[in-house]
Amino acid sequence: MAFDIAFLVGRIITGGYFLMSGVNHFKNLNMLKGYAASKKVPAAGVAVPLTGLMMLLGGLSLLLGYMPTAGTALLLAFLVPTTFWMHNFWTAPAEHKMAEKINFMKNLALIGLLLMTLKIALPWAFSF
Is the separation of the CB atoms in 47 and 78 below 8 Å? Predict the structure, then answer.
């Protein structure tokens, strides 16, 4: 039972992180579109709200335990290209290299976490 509660707390933290990030995509839409365009993301005006929606749906899926495999797939479909495209620290100017590397490594850790969730038997404890 203690592990089920720990797992639920982890879901709340992780799902909440992605929910907040998705909301942030919409709250700061114009700024993030400009940033994505500066990184040469094609159709940045479409990509930013689309990835915000992916994070909202994926985060909600993890939080609620509702269709977590689909939610994980959405989050991985967002994180993998974003990690390598937006946080390519190896090409960043010296003044941005450290920040990009930190975001790159954080995203790799999130990718690892998400891949591990695929091994957890369904249905998850305390899920909808």
Answer: no
Is the pTM value of this prediction over 0.90?
Answer: yes
Q: 117 is written with which tokens?
A: 């969730």
Over 44-104, what HEC string results? Answer: HHHHHHHHHHHHHHHHHHHHHCCCHHHHHHHHHHHHHHHHHHHCCHHHCCHHHHHHHHHHH
Task: Name 117's Cβ contacts closer than 8 Å, sequence gap at least 6.
Answer: 62, 68, 72
Q: Minimal CA–CA distance to 50: which of 72, 29, 31, 73?
A: 29
* Closest among 49, 58, 1 to 25, alpha carbons compared: 49
Report pLDDT digits (tens) over 37-85: 999 999 999 999 999 999 999 999 999 999 999 999 999 999 999 999 9
